[in-house]
Amino acid sequence: MTARAKALAFRVIQLVPFILFLVLWEAFVRVSEGASFFFGRPSRILFYLTTGIADGSLLKDFAVTLLETILGFGLGSVLGAALGLGLWYSRIAFALFRPYIIALGSAPVFAFAPLIVVWFGTGLVSKVATAAISTIFVALLQAYTGASEVSSDYLLLMRSFQATKGQTFRKVIVPAAAVWVISAFKLNVGFAILGAFLGEFISSSAGLGHLILVAGGLFDISRVLTGITLLVIMALGLNGLVSLLEDPLRRLVARL
Amino acid sequence: MLHLKEIAKSYNGDPVFFDFSLEVKQGEVAALVGPTGCGKSTLLRVVAGVEPPDHGIVETPRPPVGFMLQDPLLLPWRSLQENALLGSEVRGVNVRFRQGVVQRYFHLFGLDLQEAQYPAAASGGMRQRVALIRTLMIDPQTLLLDEPFTSLDFHAKIKVQRELLAYQEKTAATILMVTHDIEDAIALSDYILIVSDRPMRIKSIIKIDLGLWKKDPVEARKVPGFRDYFADVAGKLRYDGAR
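The joint structure predicted for all components is written out below.
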């Protein structure tokens, strides 16, 4: 058996517990009266998925949440990483701002909700803001940690070439911290989805958060689970996308 | 001329050296030999200007000063060739014009076709040779070399030493080299500075005169007087250890 065939076989075997779980779940809710009210039903989820995709309603909700997530993720992660790396220039500035960064980063995003609604309204911007706030501190702290943990020997090497601080930053700090920044991006996929979801939960007229909120109000557990399924698919897709961007990003910073 | 006048350096009140003075004339090669941890590397760092002395004056000939650290310190995200060009990039040289030079060094140092490799895939000896190429690529007038041959097998070492001597002859560069290998010190240097344990001081200066054979590290080792120099240096080092 070739390595490729082995990998494929492994993937198929990996699916077995999931399929088994779905079959048992379906069987359980069919034989137990009233169980589908509490636990939903896989066949119902499949029905919602197919009909929702066919009529475009699920795709619209998916697209809305995806757009909010990507914008919030991009804004929070890029800004956070830039600030975190930039703080390498001044340890004093970091020491000064550290308690504020940690305090703001520790506060639950949900607590900012009323402020966000007042500042940014109930449209797209408020969801993007929630997603951005959810991601910015992770990116900032990870980027700063990566930058500050660069071996002092590399800094010594750059000093031996009489490199300026800017050259050391470009040629050593940014590429060395790239691993930390990319790991922050991976973590932030989940945080950005959570942020966008929370934003929709607070006030929205579309999106997967809206769908789950409405379905929850109607006790339609299968529809709630449909929304969750789509959120999981979105997270997996975005994680895959970040992984795909990892190598080009590393190559890019290596050439600074 | 490389001139150190009464320089001192200490860490947490522990003096590494004080009142340390040294002169290496333009075009001379001097080797520092002494016990491990006595402060030889610290001295090179101070001379290279990456660490300030507590007192004293360090005068180096016109820049650039090439400093090869004990650890090759190649940047893992750069290929071997990109690492070799790091110093040139920092000095603002257009590296496109340096491709030919770097390729020639890779060839001379026995690293043909290894340019695109990354440090993780390179052996210790390869990394050390790339670190030396990186140092030479900035065309230094003063070379400070900290254990530059430790990871090299004999064949590679001789190759590198020949090229180093050729560079020194061509550019009349001043070289201050730290080594634990007495034979390397004799084969390459105009004189050997034997230094004591901390606080480091110069115990003895041995002038090396191998005549014309000095320019060839293999032939230099065959000169009858080579063994006498070896015995002299080893004897003086042993005395320090016994004390």
